[in-house]
Amino acid sequence: MAKKGNRIQVILECTEHKTSGMPGMSRYITTKNKKNTPDRIELKKYNPVLKKVTVHKEIK
């Protein structure tokens, strides 16, 4: 049998969108290796509502 990997799916949510008060939200789904990066990740991604690149943090 093949062994299960350490890769898990995580959801990234925009941090600036919450404080802006605009409706909707910007979320991305990606994968990470939980063995190499046990803490929550932060990536810069495009927010189509705000029309700019913002910081997206991992949520549980």
What's this model, at a glance?
By secondary structure, this protein is mostly beta strands. The chain is built from one helix and four strands.
Question: How much helicity do the residues have?
Answer: under 10%
Helix tally? 1
Instruction: State the distance separating the first and last CA atoms.
Output: 30 Å
* Overall pLDDT metric: 90
How many E strands? Answer: 4
Which class best fits the helix and strand makeup?
mainly beta
Going across the major beta sheet, what is the strand order?
Answer: 2-1-4-3
Overview of the molecule:
The protein has one helix at 16-20; strands at residues 7-14, 27-33, 42-47, 52-59. The chain is mainly beta and 60 residues long. The chain has a domain at 1-36. A 4-stranded antiparallel beta sheet has the order 2-1-4-3. The N and C termini lie far apart (30 Å).
Break the fold down into its secondary structure elements and pairings:
Blueprint: E1 7-14, H1 16-20, E2 27-33, E3 42-47, E4 52-59
Antiparallel strand pairs: 1-2, 1-4, 3-4
Short key terms for the protein model shown above:
four-stranded antiparallel beta sheet, 60 residues, single chain, 1 helix
